[in-house]
Amino acid sequence: MSDASTDRMSVMDRLTALAAWPVQALFKVLDYPLSAIQRLIGTHRMPWIFLLPNLAFFGVFVVIPLFINFAFSLTGGTELFLGNRVYTGTEQYGFLLECETFGDPVTCREDRFWKGIYNTAVFIFFQVSFLVLFSLITALILNRKIRARGFFRAVFFFPVLLSPVVVALIWKWILLRDGILNAFLVSMGLDKILFFVSPEWSMFWAVFVSIWANMGFYTLILLAGLQAIQPDLYEAAEMDGTSRERVFWRITLPLLWPNLLVVVVLALIKGVQIFDEVFVLTGGGPGTATQFIVQYIYNTGFTEQVQNFGLASAASVVLGVVLFVLTMTQLAATRARDHG
Amino acid sequence: MLTARRGQGALHWSDVFTYVYLLFGVLLMFGPVIWLVMSSFKTPAGLVEFPPTFLPLGQVEVPVEGYDEPLLLFDVTMEDGTTRQLAQVRRIGIISQMVDPANPGDTIKVPIDQRTKVREFRMAVENYVDPLERFNFVQYLQNSVVVTVAATLVTLLINSMAAYGLSIYEFRGRNAIMLFVIGTLMIPITVILVPVYLVVTQLGMINSLWAVILPGAATPTGVFLLRQYMLTIPKDLIEAARMDNASEWAIYSKVVLPLAMPAIAVLAIFSIMWRWNEFLWPLIVLNRSEVYTLQVGLNAFQGELDVQWHYILAMTVVTLIPVVVVFAFLQKFITTGIASSGMK
After folding, report:
1. Do the domain assignments include residue A77?
2. Is pLDDT at B7 greater than 60 in this prediction?
3. What's this model's pTM, rounded to 2 decimal places?
4. What is the rounded CA–CA span in Å between residue B8 and residue B23?
5. Which among B4, B249, B331 is the nearest to A30, CB-wise?
6. Which of A22, A26, A127, B191 has the CA that lies 20 to 30 A from B23?
7. Mean pLDDT of chain A
8. Residue numbers in B near A275 (CB within 8 A)
9. Cβ of B187 under 8 Å from any chain A Cβ?
10. Based on the domain organization, do A45 and A124 belong to the same domain?
11. For residue range B100-119, what is the model confidence (pLDDT) as tens digits?
C-alpha cells in the first residue's frame, strides 16, 4: 500500500471516529440508567426494555389509529376529536356503498368514490400487466451475457430512487402543450396533442410514468430469481441442442414462476395505493379521469371545504380490507416461493 | 457486438432484440432526466420556444438607448438582400418594428419571416439562484435535511433496539411480538391517514417537522431486516461479554451494533430514501410554507396559476441531486439490499 493511500485511510478513519464520537457518548450516558434498570428488574426482563420504544411508536401511530379509524367511520359531522363526533352507525358505509347498478359509477350516491375505485381498477389492470411484462423482459435481457451489465442494470434501476414528485415533474415537462414530445409529433407532420385534456391520454401517461418509475425495482427481484436458477440446467439443455425458445418455456419460466407471482402481488399492493406520481402529474384530472381511491380519501378528509373525516375513514377501511386480502395473498405467494 | 455469445453460429434474433432493447432503454430512462437538466439551464424565453432546442440557447438581448428593457436581437434580411443585426421594439401582426442598436433613432418595419433570432449558448444559473434567494427553497431544503437526518437517526436507534431484543433473547411472547411486527407491515399509512392525523393533532405536532419525523420511525421493515441479520451473530460472543460483567445495554451498543453495521447501513440508506422522497403524509400535516419539505414545496410551486417552469425545473434538479449522489456511491448496497429483502 502506498503512503498516500495509508494517509487517506487514516484521515477517513479519523473522520469516522469523529462522527461516531457523539453516538458513542450517547450510548455511554444511556448505559447508567439502563444498567440500573437491569439490576432492578433482572436480565431476563431486559428484552422488553429494548422493545419498549418501538412498541410505543407502533402503538401510538399504528395500532391506536387503526381502532380510531373504525370509530371514525361510524361517526358523522366535521369535528376532528372523537368525543365531539356524532355516532351514526354504519351510515357512512351505507352512503359509500349505495349504488343502483355497481357497474356504472354515475348511478352511485357517492359517485366520486366509485369513480375512484373504477379508475384504480383500470389503472392497476394495465399498470400491473405491463409492469410485470417489461420487468420480465428487462430482467431476461440483463441476465444474458452482455457487456457492461452493471451499467445497464443501473440505467433501468435508478428511477426507483427518484421521488414521485420529481418523476411527475420530469414527465409533465415533456408532455406539456409545447413540450418536447409535441415538438417531435409536429416534426413528424402530426398535430399537437393536449395530453392532459384528454381522459384517455391522462390515464395512459399515469400508467406509463408509474411503470417508468417502478420497473427497476421489480426487474431487480426477477433478476435475482433468474440468477438463482442452476446453470447446469441450461448447460444440459445446450448439450441436448434444445432451442432457446424451448429453454425459456420449459426451464426459465417454470422456475421463475414463484418469483413472478410475488412480483405481481407486490405490484398490485403498490398499485392500489397509487397517489403521489399521478397527483402531481395530472392532479386527478381532467375532471376525475385519473382520480384514484387514495386521492378520494385525501380529498374527502383533507382538502374539501367541509372535511368529512367519517367518510374518509370509511373509505380507508374499504381500502384496508382490499389491501389485507392482497397482503395475505402475497404472504402465501412468498411462502410458496421460499419453501417451494 | 454487445452480446458475447457462447459457441458460434448465426446471429439469433434475440441478440438483435437485446441490442435494440438496451439502446432504447438507455434513451428512455436517461433521456427524460437529461432533458430536465438541459431545460433547467434555459431562460424563460428559451423554455417557451417551440420547437425547443437541446442546448440552453438564449436569444441575445441588447440594451438600446431610449428603451428601458433590453431588446431582442435578430438577423434581418433586408429588401436589397443584405443582412443586418437589428433589435426588435415591438411586433404587430406579421410586421416587426425594429431599430439598429447603433442608431436607435429610426424605426425599420420588417416582415417577421425575414428575421432570424441571434442566439448564444448561455446557462441561466439564475434559475437556481433566484428561487433559493427569493422564495423559501433554502428553508424547504433545510426542512428536508432535518426530517431525513432526524428520522433516520430515530429509526436506526429504536429499530435496532427492537431487533436486538427480538434476536438475542429467548423469552415468552417473542413469537407473538414478531407476528405483531409482521402484522403492522400490512398497514400502510394510506389506510390510517385520518386517525394518525388526529393523533398528531392531539400531540400538538401539526405544522411541525416532528409530525413527519415520528409516525414512520418504527418501521416493521427495519425491525425485520436488522433482526434477520442479528440472528446470525454467534451467541458465544454475547455470552463472553456477559461473563465479563457487561450490562445488556453495553452488549447491545458495543458488541452487537458494530457487528450489525452492514444491515444498519442498508436500513440507513432505505430510510434516507424514504424520508427524502416522502410526499403524501407531509402534504397532509404540513400546511404552512415555513415547514414545507422540498417535495411539498415543489408541488405547491407547480400548482400555482402562473407556473414558473424555469424555477421548478431547477429546483427539481436540486431535489434529485442527493439521490443521484447516494446512488452513485452506494449502488451495490441498495441493489443487494432490495434483492435480498424484497422491499424498498
Report:
1. no
2. no
3. 0.83
4. 24
5. B249
6. A127
7. 85
8. 190, 280
9. yes
10. no
11. 877 777 778 888 777 777 77
